[in-house]
Amino acid sequence: MDFDRHTFKINVLYSYSGTAQELIYRFKFLKQVDMSKIIIGLILQSLDIKNNFDLIVPVPSHPIDEIRRGYSHMDIIAHKISGPSSINYEPILKRCFFPVLKRNQKLRNKEQRIFNKERFSLRPRTSTIKNKRILLIDDVMTTGATIKDCSRVLYNNGANFVEAVCFCLTRL
After folding, report:
1. What's the whole-model pTM score?
2. What is the DSSP code string of 45-72?
3. Cβ(16)–Cβ(168) under 8 Å?
4. H helices within the chain, ranges in order?
5. What total of structural domains would you count in the chain?
6. What domain range is 134 assigned to?
């Protein structure tokens, strides 16, 4: 399948500043998991996602970040959105492990982010995604490279349509 022939839609809800930035910071770095309820409420309030998708898939955290945090913040968000939206939740993507010192997207410029390939794959024993409509969930987008890389993996494994929701947009 030729990924470049497929399109995907990205919904960005807020600018990564002020209250939205504070919510993400508290949830991700201060381990205030109750902030997820506010984020989820804002996502559900902002989008009409019922009956449009077969699966909700979170963008996976890096394994080291999950260990440090003690949880995958996007798994929590995606899983809790699946209930009220009646869309199946399935964390089918995994982040490929690459050298710790070269893993952080924050330390890369725009060109380095865009050309950082092979960062994601499907988890082993993933159920089929052939012809599925997938809602991809992420917290912060800067260049869109992560969403594009995840979408590429999903399309190359048979997804029919991919739409992303990013809670915030930041700039380089």
Report:
1. 0.83
2. HH---TTS-SEEEEPPPPHHHHHHHSS-
3. yes
4. 18-28, 35-46, 63-69, 73-85, 110-114, 145-156
5. 1
6. 3-169
